[in-house]
Structures are given as C-alpha cells and as structure tokens.
Amino acid sequence: GQSLEQPSEVTAVEGAIVQINCTYQTSGFYGLSWYQQHDGGAPTFLSYNALDGLEETGRFSSFLSRSDSYGYLLLQELQMKDSASYFCAVKGSQGNLIFGKGTKLSVKP
Amino acid sequence: DSGVTQTPKHLITATGQRVTLRCSPRSGDLSVYWYQQSLDQGLQFLIQYYNGEERAKGNILERFSAQQFPDLHSELNLSSLELGDSALYFCASSVEVRTEAFFGQGTRLTVV
Q: Which residues of chain B have pLDDT under 50?
C-alpha cells in the first residue's frame, strides 16, 4: 500500500521561506505531486516531480529524492495568501492519487 | 475554474436517507476520482473510474457506490446516511497518464 507523512502545521512570517517535508512509502512509485487547498476551497495542483532534483515554478519549488523516499515543497517570499493547507500525493499503481493528511501553513504578518 | 463541475454545492439531509452527488469532468478527461474530506482531515480516496469502468477502490463504505456513464459524467451514491458521513465530497478528473488532477468545488454534505 501507500502512505505519506507530512507535518500537520507550520507557521512562518510574511516574506520568509518555509519548507514542507513529505516522506512516502509506496509499492510502486510514479512521482510526487503537491496540491494547495484554501479553507473551504478545492485542492489545486502546484507541482510534480518524477525524477530526483528540484523543480521551480515562480515562488514555489519542489524537490524529490527517490532513494530517500522524500520530497519537499519550498515556498519563498511568503505572502498572506499562501496561508492554506498543502498536500503531497503519490500516484498509485492503478492511477489513483493518494494524499497525505496535509500541512496547514499559517503566514503571520 | 478547473473545468470540473459538481452538483449540488450543498446538501442537507437526515440520517437514513440516500443522496446522489454528480460530477462532470473536464472535457477530454477519462479518469474521474471521488474523495471524501471530513473536518480538518485529509483527502480520503474513495473510488476511481476510467472511461466508464471502475479502476481503483479506496476505503469506500459498502453503503456508498459510484458509476461513470457513457458521457463520462459520474455519480456517487450515498445511502443509509449517518452523522459521520457529513463531509466535503470532491470529484477530480485527469488525463490518464498524467498526475495533475483537477478538482471540482466539492459538495458539502450535512447529515442531521
């Protein structure tokens, strides 16, 4: 089966950098994705890593180490609007997405 | 707008009742996923359909069932509802070989 572990909460100040870690156990690995969800809203796709290394998209970057079964999402120049829950997800062998329990990020002024 | 449409947005019903949630995927997406999200909880995978056929099953209760129709829209049926079934139910769709899933705005179900 698959399981993902990520911290439940992270707090940071506006303008800072924050890293949200994710470790996973999966019987077959097809890549690690990250999603953002604001309170009451729908999850939205942020990034995807299939290979080791860093992927950068604007203020957000995502890193993967397949040998360590580990990845992280890096958010730079934090803004108040970044306050949300962030989920890592792996794709199961049948194509379904399995999500971690999510990390609630609170950005303080 | 993700292109995934879910109806209704809100639903209030009594225990023991049955409801149907509807999802229209993005144009061209063959995969549809259903997720349940309870208060302050993660996204629990329920079931996936691909081009009309069941593809993967998660922790879906026997009281719940789903199907995907020839026009690719999907319905999630929840029966013998209990208070604990109150949650946000999300539908998502994707192109099969990619990992980017697009989520609808969800149906908030309240069982009273």
A: none
